[in-house]
């Protein structure tokens, strides 16, 4: 008999393969002046693909998908991943976090130079929105437009970019718990929550079920950042695939610096319980993958 854990592992394997195949196809290798090389380097062969998996799991939560919604979910998942990848390319540059290691390999600006890294990030951002509006598709125009709006809101000044601005402005400062939570709600949580909401949009999920998924996404997004702060303290660079301890070195406020290590861990588990409770009250028939993804976020080691 196959256990729920085995089912999730199989689901993950199948969906990750679809995402990797699509990203490999859609990120052009033949861009002008070899720009495709740093674009592909930034995205392929690395990363947990949590955001695409959240899109796909949310889209499937109400049941099996027809061809149009299934295509929309795959495109939306890849689009979110491209936004995430572009943000990492830019965040790692000397003008921001000045990091040399990402996903276990040199950062894009170290490998290709700052100008190519900047352009690769720009191109990945534009490609994300191009994926959401394919020509000759079975995806309704209204769905395409809504997906673009959701992703733009999550990535812009009231989302990821705004959160990064707060982060840079907070170096060396003591933030309250509310201020820290707001920063991470924007910087990290907005894109994770948007992943869930975009999946719901693809499947036409509305009403109380949508509200429950939004609550799940908000709790998950915050839990992800709390665990990130914990791992920055307890894990090494080889395990993380990025430079460990850099938040403390740069004087950045974190949940660990504010609450202490054990209290931060406990808070992450409280948020996990919130996410699972929201799913349980959603009324959706197929939330096992979403539940397992939340559990994976909190129990991860890198």
UniProtKB/TrEMBL annotation:
<comment type="similarity">
    <text>Belongs to the FPP/GGPP synthase family.</text>
</comment>
<dbReference type="InterPro" id="IPR053378">
    <property type="entry name" value="Prenyl_diphosphate_synthase"/>
</dbReference>
<dbReference type="InterPro" id="IPR008949">
    <property type="entry name" value="Isoprenoid_synthase_dom_sf"/>
</dbReference>
<keyword id="KW-0808">Transferase</keyword>
<keyword id="KW-0414">Isoprene biosynthesis</keyword>
<protein>
    <submittedName>
        <fullName>Polyprenyl synthetase family protein</fullName>
        <ecNumber>2.5.1.-</ecNumber>
    </submittedName>
</protein>
<dbReference type="InterPro" id="IPR000092">
    <property type="entry name" value="Polyprenyl_synt"/>
</dbReference>
<dbReference type="Pfam" id="PF00348">
    <property type="entry name" value="polyprenyl_synt"/>
</dbReference>
<dbReference type="GO" id="GO:0016740">
    <property type="term" value="F:transferase activity"/>
</dbReference>
<keyword id="KW-0460">Magnesium</keyword>
<keyword id="KW-0479">Metal-binding</keyword>
<dbReference type="InterPro" id="IPR033749">
    <property type="entry name" value="Polyprenyl_synt_CS"/>
</dbReference>
